[in-house]
Design goal:
Chains A, B: Belongs to the UDP-glycosyltransferase family. Chains A, B: GO terms for molecular function: glucuronosyltransferase activity. Chains A, B: It is a single-pass membrane protein. Chains A, B: It is found in: Endoplasmic reticulum membrane; Membrane. Two copies of one chain form a homodimer. By secondary structure, the first copy, chain A, is of the alpha/beta class. Chain A has three domains: about 300 residues, Rossmann fold (3-Layer(aba) Sandwich); about 160 residues, Rossmann fold; about 40 residues. The first copy, chain A, has 19 helices and 13 strands. Chain A has a seven-stranded parallel sheet with strand order 3-2-1-4-5-6-7, sandwiched between helices. A six-stranded parallel sheet of chain A has the order 10-9-8-11-12-13, with helices on both faces. In chain A, β1, α2 and β2 form a beta-alpha-beta unit. The radius of gyration of chain A is 29 Å and the shape is globular. The relative contact order of chain A is 0.09. At the A-B interface, α8, α17 and α19 of A face α8, α17 and α19 of B.
Chain lengths: ~525, ~525
């Protein structure tokens, strides 16, 4: 209904913008199928910019969404799902809770596996409800969109794009189990491209390379549980047999929140567009409340501390350890924390329910950033050149932390094992040892020195796909080969067969020749021998 | 000497431009080591633009150069070489001459091989003379450059860059024998990335894939003759052991005149920047002389015909066949031809010594383009959306023609075998069959729809390398691995050994267990048996 009421206005606005801005040929209509949580946060900027350029945006989301809400720059359409907003909140909270649970490795893995199984079943049921909601799907068909912008972390958007026969633009950081690399046919040699969750850098020892290969072997098995059901669902809805690879590889362009300052250099494919740092383009002046904190910090400046939007509470003992460490540095610490305040909180530590992270990091008085090393936070640290103390909790955070640490731009702590001393020492190191600041400033200069801003690049490619109804000229022919053809195994087999065949014939000819030449002599000898007997 | 006299002026101009243009932080000094011939033509635009942005350019070239001449926007320094300008002219002329020689395939190959051997020996001697010219090299050291821009087709520039310890930017179309892909560690699966000179597309039959693999096996051997001496020369001059791979891979950024409209999608590396179409950004209005030809052509319009700067003469018989075919179309043909005019030249065919190719192709009355399918010409055809009749002569021209033909944007003719009818029919086809025009217009739209112009991109990356003294963050760790490490062969061997070891131990244990369980029975039976005996 929101679409119907906002549609004509958006269209009029679009037309007006077209007249005012001659670079826009005509307004187009984009269907956006995001993923809730932190994934949504970086997509919003792109949607906002596309709307400014006169396009009409329709966002669809489950009724139980937390972060995806009504906004002025897009129409929101919600579809009913068989779970509640509270279920999603509990699931998010569990992620943070599990990260602080000090249980043996195998038990932790089993718990995470169980949680992934439960959560993915819930999300799949939401997707299934969308696809089987005939009325809702019919309204999408009627809306006559030009393209789909989706986060393939949940491939539901990919199925909808195929159902509507629309070109898709994927927007993501990375997919688990290197599914993004497989779907784009992007080579990623295991010898120097570290697998996700390996905590390897691009320079690996022999044993680290062994680990990398083992992870690559295992990840297919692990991800099939979560992702295979989407292929089955797609096959059912689209009424043709589809693999997960078919489903994901149908995207025209992949907008990836990566760059080669945070990530290690590796092969890329023509339809992969790197837009890392898209979330930290501009910093705004901070509010009076935070300005007061910063001004009061004096010559020592401030430290920004946040474990991200997913972690709201920390076990009391751990919170007290942290508070103790924070009290031992001369800087003022602004800590985003919604749990019960630790009783030993020092005077220099201010607890806040929310903080303007990127704006604070951009303040010249900010000396360090304590972060869980989510990709958003790490890019904000790089953009603003603030050395980091990283406490990775789950997902790609360990890898992000490893990348920053290997570049000398921060210190990584194990949140479960670290002591109060460890944190205090790490903070003192990144603040007082000039090399950390120098390294992060070097990374910052490299990161920000680019021919085109990531937001403009993202907007360009979404518009490109809408203008040209896809980008088939960027799709490698590798998609049309079987795995043995891709690796030329049939050709190698054929050439080997010829070489062996020729060698065999040559050997036989030689043998025959030898028999012909020396055969008589031999038989004569034999004859002699037999006579002698 | 030119540098000394122009240096301060250029510096002053640079400073002035810096003040006027705040986007330039400070003027830098670039050493340019180009390759003569058509390679030089597309580099000129980049140099011109860099000079406009206030940088100081010094071009060094052998005294025997043909195309590289004095110009207002760079300083030229020439070094003596043991060959004459006439030798270079003869060598270029031979290329065109050989292309029209109707000799058996093997004989042609033998001739080309001999020519390549002769020419490369001459060029190598030029490079050796430069590197051993102490005075000249000392003047380069003193000039205190910030970076080197070079065409690695002759790796002399790469050696100079290493000698001066400067970061290098490579500017090229592609290197023979996929040396560019090897030097950048760029994966290029033989199953869908066609090898140079194979005339394959990205969709190959089984036998085409066999051909592709065979070419890949052969090319190492073929190129070593031409390129290995540069590694030996580099090792001698730099006084450390270097392979050709070391030499070429030292470049910070590779500016490649490619794009995915002309070229097939394939993996790329972070330091490969695609600037295809850099030579045909803007068309200028044509001169009165050519305007008169175009106006006189009436409703039928014109056909532009050029076989490039390297081919000046065509055997008389072939020229007459061509002239005959050209006379059979209603269009006016503008033919760039410096040889003796064929006696049967029709009235609609105008011979000119030179023509403003890109500007003419940009004219709305141009109906077709007869070209040798050099990369410059093909991009000009794409930029301006003019369908092509292609007569590839040598080098990458066959591959370029194949790419355009496979996209339905032109017709390829074998210049040796084609008859007058073939050419006339091909011309009529590309002019009258609308699909050719539609396809080239589609390619043109895709090619020109880009987030940033290739010239700006090239200038950005040259400046980036100068600003940051290289781009080590784009260099993949693959360079630090041996070939067996790169392919994880050591890891695979190790894991296989473990699996086989475990299987062996398990088998032995089972066998031992079996013997323990059934052993007594067996020996009892045996005992019985022996007793029975």
């Amino acid at each position: 209904m929101a679409v119907v009421s906002q549609g004509p206005c958006a269209l009029l606005l679009g037309l007006l913008l077209c007249v005012l801005n001659p670079s826009i040929s005509h307004a187009e209509k984009l269907l956006i199928i995001p993923v809730d949580g932190s994934h949504w946060l970086s997509m919003v900027g792109v949607i906002q910019q596309l709307q400014k350029r006169g396009h009409e945006m329709v966002v669809i989301t489950p009724e139980a969404s937390i972060h995806i809400k009504e906004a002025s720059f897009y129409s929101l359409k919600k579809y009913p799902v068989p779970f509640q907003r509270e279920d999603v909140e509990t699931s998010f909270a569990e992620l943070g809770f599990y990260a602080f649970e000090n249980v043996p490795f195998l038990q932790r893995m089993a718990k995470m596996y169980e949680k992934a199984q439960k959560d993915s079943a819930v999300l799949l049921s939401g997707c299934s409800h969308l696809l089987h909601n005939k009325e809702f799907m019919a309204s999408l068909v009627e809306s006559d969109f030009d393209a789909v912008l989706t986060d393939p972390f949940l491939p539901c958007g990919s199925i909808v794009a195929q159902y509507l026969d629309l070109p898709a633009v994927n927007f993501l950081n990375a997919l688990p189990c290197s599914l993004d690399l497989k779907a784009t046919q992007c080579p990623s040699p295991l010898s120097y491209v570290p697998r996700a969750l390996s905590s390897n850098s691009d320079h690996m020892t022999f044993l680290q390379r062994v680990k990398n290969v083992l992870i690559a072997l295992l990840e297919n098995f692990l991800c099939s549980m979560v992702y295979s059901p989407y292929a089955a669902l797609a096959s059912q809805v689209l009424q043709r047999d589809l693999t997960l690879q078919d489903l994901l590889s149908s995207a025209s362009v992949w907008l990836m929140r990566k760059d080669f300052v945070k990530d290690y250099p590796m092969p890329i494919m023509p339809n992969m567009v790197f837009v890392g740092g898209i979330n930290c383009l501009h910093t705004k002046p901070i509010s009076q409340e935070f300005e007061a904190y910063v001004n009061a910090s004096g010559e020592h400046g401030i430290v920004v501390f946040s474990l991200g939007s997913m972690v709201s509470e920390i076990p009391e003992k751990k919170a007290m350890e942290i508070a103790d460490a924070l009290g031992r540095i001369p800087q003022t610490v602004l800590w985003r924390y919604t749990g019960t305040p630790p009783s030993n909180l020092a005077k220099n530590t201010k607890l806040v329910k929310w903080l303007p992270q990127n704006d604070l990091l951009g303040h010249p008085k900010t000396r360090a950033f304590i972060t869980h090393a989510g990709s958003h936070g790490v890019y904000e640290g790089i953009c603003n050149g603030v050395p980091m103390v990283m406490m990775p909790l789950f997902g790609d955070q360990m890898d992000n932390a490893k990348r920053m640490e290997s570049r000398g731009a921060g210190v990584t702590l194990n949140v479960l094992e670290m002591t109060s001393d460890d944190l205090a020492n790490a903070l003192k190191a990144v603040i007082n040892d000039k090399s950390y600041k120098e390294n992060i400033m070097r990374l910052s200069r490299l990161h920000k020195d680019r021919p085109i801003e990531p937001l403009d690049l993202a907007v360009f490619w979404v518009e490109f796909v809408m203008r040209h109804k896809g980008a088939p000229h960027l799709r490698p022919a590798a998609h049309d080969l079987t795995w043995y053809q891709y690796h030329s195994l049939d050709v190698i087999g054929f050439l080997l067969a010829i070489v062996l065949g020729v060698a065999f014939v040559a050997f036989k000819c030689c043998a025959y020749g030898c028999r012909k030449c020396f055969g008589k002599k031999g038989s004569v000898k034999k004859g002699h021998k037999s006579k002698a007997h």
